[in-house]
UniProtKB/TrEMBL annotation:
Keywords, ordered alphabetically: Cell membrane, Membrane, Transmembrane, Transmembrane helix
Major localization class: membrane
UniProt similarity note: Belongs to the NrfD family.
Superkingdom: Bacteria
Membrane topology: Multi-pass membrane protein
Subcellular location: Cell membrane
Name of this protein: Polysulfide reductase
Pfam families: NrfD
Stretches that traverse the bilayer: 27-46, 66-85, 97-118, 147-166, 178-199, 219-238, 250-270, 300-320, 329-352, 372-394
Amino acid sequence: MRRLKVFKSLLIDSLDVITHGSRKYHLWMGFLTFVMLVGMYCYSIQLDQGLSVTGMTDRVSWGLYISNFTFLVGVAAAAVMLVMPTYVLKDIDFKQAVLIGEGLAVAALIMCLAFVVADMGGPSVLWHMIPGIGVFNFPNSMLTWDVIVLNGYLFLNISIPYYILFRHYQGKDANPKIYVPGALISVFWAVSIHLVTAFLYQGLQARPFWNNALLGPRFLASAFAAGPALIILVLAIIRNYTAFKVENKTIGKLAMIVTVAAQINLIMLVSELFKEFYAPTHHSESAYYLFFGLHGKNALLPWIWTSIPLNVLATVLLTFGKFRNNFKVLYFCCFILFVAIWIEKGFGLIVPGFIPGPYGKIAEYTPTGVEIGVTMGIWALGAFVFTILAKTAIKIETGKLRYKKKDSQ
C-alpha cells in the first residue's frame, strides 16, 4: 500500500515537474508538439490513402521509415556503453550519465517501434506481430526475433532506471542485488538487438549488397560511434542548461569510445569498398549505383558523398587528443559523425540494397513530403519523451524532488 502511495506521489510530482519550466523549455516543448501534430496530419493522409503516398514501391519497399528504424536501433544499443562501465565495471565517472543514456535508449526504442508501425501502413495490422494471435512464424523468422529483443530491451531500459529513481525519490539507495543482474542482461541484450537487426538484412541472399559477413560487426561499430556521440551532445546541453553536473572526465571517456568505434567503422568501410570494387562482379552493381551511379541513375550520390567525407573528417579529428579534448571541436565532430552515420546506415544501406532489382531494373527511390513529415513527427516524439524522462530524472538525482520532503511540508 505504501509503495502505491509513493508511486502516486511520484506521478503527481513528475507531472508538476514536466509542466513547469523556463521560457526556453516551454518553447522547446511547444515546438516538438507542433512537429508531432504535423507528423500526425501526414500520417492521417497515409492512413487514408495507403502507402501509395510514400516514395516506396514494389521495387523499393523499404525507405525512410526502415532507414531510421535501423539507425535508431543502434542509438538504443549504445546505452550499453554507459551501463557496462557503471554497473559492471564500477566506473564512477559514468555514474552521473548512465540514467541519461538509458532514457535516450527508451526514447530511441519508442521511435523504432513507431517507425515499424508507420512502415506497416497502420496500427490495424500490428496484431500479426503478437505471439499466439498473429502469424508470428516463430522461431524461423528473423523479424520475430527482432520484435522480441526490441521489446525486451525496452522493458530492461524502463525497469532498471525506474527502480533506481523510485528508490532515490524516497531518499534511499538502490539495492545492487536487484538492478545489477538486469544491467548484466541488458549488456548482452544491447548487442543482440543490433546483431539481430543486421541479420534481418544479412540473411537475404537475393540482396547481395546486404549479404555480407561484416554487416553485423559494422552495425555494432557504427552504433557505438553514433550513439555515444549523441549522448555527448545531450550531456553538453544538459550541463549547460540544468543543475545536473556532468564531469569533463565522463565526456572525455565517452569521446574515447566514440573515437575507437569510429576508427573501427571506417576500417570496415574500407574493407567493404575493397571487396566491392577491387574484383567487381554483377553483385557489385548496388555499390556502384550508390557511389558512382548506374546507367544514368544517381539519386544517392549527393547523400553518400556527403556522408563519407564527414565520417572521415570526424574520425581523423577525434583521433588526435588535442582536438578530442577541445570540447568545441569534440561537439562539432560528434554532430557531423552522427549525421554521417545516419546517412550511411539509412540511404547508404537500405535503399541501394533494392537497386538494381533481381531482373536488373533500376527504380530509384525518393521520399515524399508525407514520409518526411511522419519521420519528423516521430523524431519529435522521441525528443519529447526523452525531455520528459530527463527532466524528472534530473530533479530526482539532484535531490530537488523527494517524497519525504513532501510529507514533511
